Amino acid sequence: MFAELKNKELHLHGKAAELNAVARSIHKGRHGTSAYFDLCSSTSLFSTLHTKCHGKLATIEIKESDIYITYSESVKNHLYTYFSMPSGTQPGALFSLTHLSRDNPPLLADSSLELIIHVISSET
What b/e sequence results for 69-88 when a residue is b if at least 16 CB atoms lie within 10 Å of its CB, and e otherwise? Predict the structure, then answer.
């Protein structure tokens, strides 16, 4: 997995299996739990993706070379579905989580970066 920052959008590129691992960590999260995933530093400015169940709504932010996705128990069951990829998900598929998403109640905090997920080939 690797990530790029373009304006206020975080572009996360990952194989379906890698994205499913992130989905599982979010889905199983309880208040105070966290997980981390190494990112390919040769392709990205970022080294680690952290997930943490804490606070309200979901927030995607960058601190130094790390990406943090924090979320509350009340939104985790909706948030994890953005990362959950069926086995037949084709490389090149795009999924977006933006402030304009039709989530009711809203999923992203106002201060959050938006997220674009790119599914890449498992042979990459």
Answer: bbbbeebbeebbebbbbeee
